[in-house]
Amino acid sequence: MSERFDVVVIGAGPAGYTAAIRAAQLGLKVACVDDWRDTQGGPVLGGTCLNAGCIPSKALLETSELYLLARDHGPAHGLRFKELSLDLTAMMAHKDKVVSELTRGIATLFKANGVTWIPGHGKLLAKNIVEVSGQSAQQLQAEHVILASGSTPVNLKSAPFDGQRIVDSQSALAFKDVPQRLGVIGAGVVGLELGSVWRRLGAEVVLLEAQENFLSMADEQVAREALKQFTAEGLDIRLGARVLHSQVEKNAVTVRYQDKDGENEESVERLIVAVGRRPNTDGLFAAETGLLLDEWGFVHVDEHCRTNLPNIYAVGDVVRGPMLAHKGMDEGVMVAERIAGHSTTVNYDLVPSVIYTQPEIAWVGKTEQTLKSTGESYRAGVFPFAANGRAKAMGEASGFVKILADARTDRVRGVHMVGPVCSELIAAAGLAMSFGASSEDIMLTMFAHPTLSEAFHESALAVAGRAIHLAQPRHPKT
Known about the structure:
Blueprint: E1 3-10, H1 14-25, E2 30-34, H2 47-52, H3 54-73, H4 88-113, E3 116-119, E4 121-125, E5 129-133, E6 138-147, E7 151-153, E8 166-167, E9 181-185, H5 189-200, E10 204-209, H6 220-232, E11 235-239, E12 242-249, E13 252-259, E14 262-268, E15 270-273, E16 277-279, E17 312-314, H7 325-339, E18 353-355, E19 360-365, H8 368-373, E20 378-384, H9 389-394, E21 400-406, E22 412-419, H10 422-434, H11 439-443, H12 454-463
């Protein structure tokens, strides 16, 4: 006889494990089924984000940035090293240690909250039954089921993965040596972050992006500044470059692509394919359940992540919206609380986005081009980090903070940043916007000096032409 649970979660990535923990906190009997395995083949929690995405990539980005600072920028700060060398094995060991500590932490949280962890592949059957295949083969009876199976990298026909020379983002986090010449298909978030890691460590990096516009989802002014900075760092970003074919030959990959000048070829030691991810819905449910997917393979849900089936929910990368861990985590909490009778919602208008490059890029809310396209009247305030004392002291004074405020109500509609530590600064913008703040509210808030956050304050002042540390046209009435 199958064991009964109030909630069964399929998937233990950020969306799934957060949903499981929150449901257990609310007094529900919860099981979480997940089939992720570590490099030794053992079951492990955390999904792609902790094991092969967000966390390991940030560990490598952090370490590679330290290496770059010591190698290229140390002398400007009066730091001279007689002998600086790269120990890639130690760098990877540090990354693996961080990942291991965090995944073990989730297991501890499951135990502390009474969540039953069941390793194996979960599949939704009719009548809210979850079939678990693998070492823990069994069937679970659930009152509610939360689908949180995540996503996997898209495999291009023109550059199929071989696991050695042509790889996905996961394999690109575990190279055993620094490639002399690295190719990356896709200059989006993942491509830029991975390209940055290996460029800092000494690789020549060529990024081939099919779109004509760089970072089309970001504010255009931010994207232009970022492209300028990345180019200065040595990233060779080629826009409008559509890959036609790739061929592995001995120790190299030949990539043929087409741009406005016709067909071209590049030879690289390794090729990373980073053109997006697809939802893991294959094998997630039995056909007789009648679960609805959209044309892209995402589970169809409403604004509260309810599917077309009673008591069946879906969250995270497997549903519409940006494939971001924090978005999935908020959805997991929302669903758990709604199952427990609360009326929680997710504000999808205020999902922050971050690219952890150098400089960092972050934004929340509307872009300037979106406001223009919808005919909304707005005012913009821009403040450069070049005029910020803390950024100058850090030697990281490129970029700016930009605030877009409604011309009539002054309510902040969007905040966009490119520069140092913007991944942290954007939280202040999200908090302000969640309370419906105006640019004047931010102006009247005191910020510590000297801090990078002052650039956020001054950009709010700049909306009204009142920035203190920036020469602006005078506005007598303000």
